[in-house]
Amino acid sequence: MSDITIGLLSFPALLFLIFLRVPIGLAMFLAGLVGLTIVSGDTTLAFARLKSETFTTFSSYSLSIIPMFLLMGHFATLGGMSQALFKAAESFLGHRKGGVAMAAVGACAGFGAICGSSLATAATMSRVALPELRRYGYSGGFSTATLAAGGTLGILIPPSIVLVIYAILTEQNIAKLFLAAFIPGILAALGYMLTISIYVRLHPASAGTRPRVTYAERLKALIAVWPVLLVFVAVVGGIYQGWFTPTEGAAVGAFGTGLIAFLGGGLTRHTLSESFYVTARSTAMIFFIVLGAAFYNGFLALTQLPQEAAAWVGASGFSPWTILLIILVFYLLLGCLMDSLSMILLTIPIFWPIVQELDFNLVSMVDLQAARLDGMIAGGKEIPAVLLSEAQAMLANGQELSREMTREIKLRGVSEGALNRVNIERTAIWFGILVLIVVEVGLITPPVGMNLFVINAMDRKTSMVDTYIAVLYFVCSDLVRVILLVVFPIITLILLPI
Questions:
Q1: CA torsion through residues 212, 214, 217, 219, sign
Q2: CA–CA separation, 166 and 62 (whole Å)
Q3: Are residues 303 and 3 in contact, defined by beta-carbon separation less than 8 angstroms?
Q4: Tens place of pLDDT for every residue, the chain, 498 residues?
Q5: Among 1, 17, 109, 408, which residue is least crowded by beta carbons within 10 Å?
């Protein structure tokens, strides 16, 4: 039996372990351990790799961002930020048909900006919003589906723990990935609100209304969310401005939310120790999944399966768009069986080498030359007026500058190699956001849908079937958004400098 065949057979074996309810991290670890033993012929390599893989995985400085973001989310809950966000959104939207559900989605988006975890966002906002939804006559299935969908915004709107893991796996800039996720995250929230509006018109009995509040009450509720805005601007704005790294930004966010919770009386000695304990437990769970995935992917690399898969796809003659579509459909199907982090860790080492070889032509040489020329002008470089005018006219007409002209202007970073590097980076970022969205769809797709189980566990009166039926409207909204981002990559990449 060849090594590649062993690698292929490991997938059904892994899925079988998951079906037996073996924890996903342990399942990947066992599959990797047994696979390495079979490929190498003894246990020497497997146990030697266990020692080295553990050190190389957890010595990554970037991983320290994960416990900081988790701690920030716990402190934000203790500080009452989730309640403040919901009350502010409800004061502006609650009087509309379906308005309380829209407010819940808006609050989820706001809380996701300081949390970074989908399950934590879903669980936290459910405790705040479910009683209000019940109070104003919203049906059980519609309420739970809304909160499950809103919870997915926690991993899309930056900061995002899953994006951090993706950045580490593909060696991309975390800050750029956060920036690229911003517009798709806003689109997701608006899409969910539109879905709610459509749903309540098709099912009028599923939602009640609440009285309109005065403008004074709205202003008071809006003022109450200033801590959220302060933390978000400090963390995300500080990262984009280069004041600190993403890891330092996460530490600043954790300190800021902790200070706000302390001043508000929510952070005591008892709740502080409880926050540390919950953060440590969640971090240990995530890190074990990371270790299991690293061990399993190390085994796959030894079998040469990812490289062979990339070579096969390259020789298949399929267009890059066809291959991308196949990968996204695979993620949608896999999302019905696995959680988001496990999918990312398991599949990205296999799919990224394939996608990296595809040419989507996201940036042309004209785009690159124009961007570099604008950078020279912004930097105060002196260029002869006639030469500058001629170059700008050519680029505006879609013509590449000749090599002689680039030399005269002293335009740097416009070689074919530079263009290739820019395209690979932008492809990685665009693909990462697409994967994040389809993984997000998996969180609310039956039969697994982790968010659905989290929400239904908090509302035992609502049957899972009712939640499944209502959540399909939100899944359709997500699929429309995926199509838009695939067809128009500029939506994702427009905020990124070339």
A1: positive
A2: 11
A3: yes
A4: 777 788 888 888 887 887 787 887 888 888 888 888 888 877 777 778 777 778 877 777 778 888 888 888 888 878 777 778 888 887 888 778 888 889 889 888 888 877 767 777 777 777 788 888 888 888 888 888 888 888 888 888 877 888 888 888 888 888 889 889 989 999 999 999 999 999 989 988 887 777 787 778 878 877 777 877 788 778 878 877 778 888 888 888 888 888 888 888 888 888 888 888 888 888 888 888 888 888 888 888 788 777 777 777 767 778 889 889 988 888 887 776 677 777 888 888 888 888 888 888 888 888 888 888 888 888 778 888 888 888 888 888 888 888 888 888 888 888 888 888 889 999 999 999 999 888 888 778 876 677 777 777 777 777 878 888 888 999 999 999 999 999 999 999 998 887
A5: 1
- Residue 474's CB is within 10 A of a number of other CB atoms, namely 25
128 and 83 Cβ atoms separated by less than 8 Å: yes
* Tokens standing for residue 153: 């915004």
Q: Is the peptide bond between 159 and the residue preceding it cis, with omega within 30 degrees of 0?
A: yes
Distance of CA 418 to the CA centre of its chain: 28
